[in-house]
Amino acid sequence: MSAKVPLHIEIVSDPVCPWCYIGKRRLEAAIAQRPDLDMDVSWRPFQLSPDMPRAGRKRIEHYQQIFGAERAQTIMDSMKDTGREEGIAFGNSPDAVSPNTLSAHVLMLWARESDDIDVNVLAEKLFYAHHVACENIGDHAVLARIAGEVGMDVPEVLRNLASGKDEDRVQQLIQESVARGVSGVPFFIINNRYGLSGAQPPDAFLAALDQIVAASEDAA
Predict the structure, then answer these.
(1) From residue 73, how far is each of 78, 133, 216 by CA, in Å?
(2) Domain ranges of the chain
(3) Residue 197, number of CB atoms within 10 A of its CB
(4) What percent of the chain is predicted at pLDDT more than 70?
(5) Distance from C-alpha of 99 to C-alpha of 109, rounded to nearest angstrom
(6) How many alpha carbons lie under 13 Å from residue 164 in its C-beta half-sphere?
(7) Whole-number mean pLDDT of the chain?
(8) 26 and 86 in contact (C-beta within 8 Å)?
């Protein structure tokens, strides 16, 4: 298999989505099995609950409103089992918040546009903060602390988040994904042409990557 075929993978994601966290881990497992490929990964925003108040809501109440109390508990229990298989210890604090994720996506945008920041590390930290540590990633203080952990300027991040800087750009990016047919996340776009929906197992990612590389080599 040639290493000359470039593969660009866009992950359309929302950090509050547990399947997005699982999908990230499974994609990483697949990439690790193809070390000779020329791959890079970027992130695009999506909001599962764009109408969520900026202060957020209690997570358990939010889930119960969507799924009903009994099904919400079943889903959370099942997710903990699935997460354990991927090395994710999903937390279940009764005080956990379902946040509005617009500010978190703005932070991801800034990281993506900075050569000095590893956006994949930031994505992992946001997932961990929400799903494992049960922190409120809609809180600007929490986001600024996480930004500092990846090398971003904390006072600048706080000022810019408070001013709403680039929120319009993030919302435009979300609308672009919707216009491309993305209605749920995670969604993976490879070379701006091929799409995979959902937290696919590593074997499914590998099959897609191998097929795309083979088709590109045949066309060359």
Answers:
(1) 9, 19, 45
(2) 6-219
(3) 15
(4) 98
(5) 18
(6) 3
(7) 94
(8) yes
pLDDT band at 2 (very low <50, low <70, confident <90, very high): very low
- Superfamily grouping for domain 6-219: Glutaredoxin (3.40.30.10)
What pLDDT shows up at residue 220? Answer: 62
Question: In this structure, which long-range contacts are made by residues 88-92, counting pairs with CB atoms below 8 Å and at least 24 apart in sequence?
Answer: 88/21, 88/22, 88/25, 88/131, 88/132, 89/132, 90/18, 90/131, 90/132, 91/131, 91/132, 91/133, 91/134, 92/134
The residues near 68 (Cβ < 8 Å, ≥ 6 apart) are none
The two three-digit tokens of residue 92, written as one number? 């279940």
Please tell me whether the peptide bond between 186 and the residue prior to it is cis, using omega within 30 degrees of 0. Answer: yes
89: exposed, middle or buried (C-beta count within 10 Å: 0-12, 13-18, 19+)? exposed
Query: How far from the centroid of its chain's Cα atoms is residue 64's Cα?
Result: 23
pLDDT per position as a tens digit, 177-191: 999 999 999 999 999
Q: How many angstroms separate the CA atoms of 15 and 138, rounded?
A: 11
Q: How confident is the model at residue 120 (pLDDT cuts 50, 70, 90)?
A: very high
CB 9 within 8 A of CB 181: no
Looking up tokens 């978190």 gives 104
**Rounded to an integer, what distance in angstroms lies between the CA atom of residue 188 and that of residue 113?**
20
Q: What does the pLDDT look like over 73-92, one tens digit per residue?
A: 899 899 999 999 999 999 98
pTM score above 0.70: yes
Please state, in angstroms and as integers, the Cα–Cα distance from residue 90 to each residue in 74, 131, 132, 150, 196, following that order: 14, 5, 5, 22, 24
Distance CA 182, CA 79 (A): 23
